[in-house]
Amino acid sequence: MSASSQLPWLVANGSVIFESVGILSYALSGLIEAARKKLDLVGMVMMAAVTSFGGGTLRDILLDRRPFFWVENLYWIYVILGLCIGALLFMRARHLDFTERAMQWPDAIGLGIFSAGGTQIALQAHMPPIVAVVMGVLTAVFGGVARDVMVVEIPKLFIDHQPYAVLAFTGCWIVVIGDSLHWPDFVSLGLSAVFIIALRISAILLGWRLPVWKV
Q1: What confidence tens digit (pLDDT) does each residue in 83-98 have?
Q2: Residue 128 gets which letter from DSSP?
Q3: DSSP 126
Q4: Which parts of the chain register pLDDT below 70?
Q5: Using CA atoms, how far apart are residues 102 and 104, in angstroms rounded to an integer?
């Protein structure tokens, strides 16, 4: 396939690929957390599904979008189920013991992709820029919050003092800028996602911390 013929294909299918990487990344982070908590197969499926679908479902409710994105694309339910079964067999065969940090890498990818994607969807629904950015942040962070609540933990978003939502909020504005300048969707989405992912990985590696409120 030549470069000139790749561009129309990328424009037509880029959003699907983009969303797929985000869903699989968040599903993997949910699976790792389920493995750390030693949940059974049902628990693994629920953790992966809630982490992957939670933020997008909240976004669709707030934007009054029906059907929900995972209902409209039912195959994702089967993908998550198959992923969990495969992961359970693989982890038991290899006797893997995941750390909390292992969960942060796929979570960083999901953060960037869902932030950018949620912002773009809100803009397409004719939301004001600030509302679109907030929708992007909610799309990205709510699944992780729900994941932590399911294992009876205070969400790490609120207590580990690492920049997370603030990175999503910052990077979502690239989508807004791209929309105002009429960039192709895949360009603004890609730039926004890469920017957020790079910031999040830097925060993990360099130990960035937000100021702590002291009473």
Answers
A1: 888 877 776 656 555 6
A2: -
A3: T
A4: 1-16, 91-100, 213-215
A5: 5
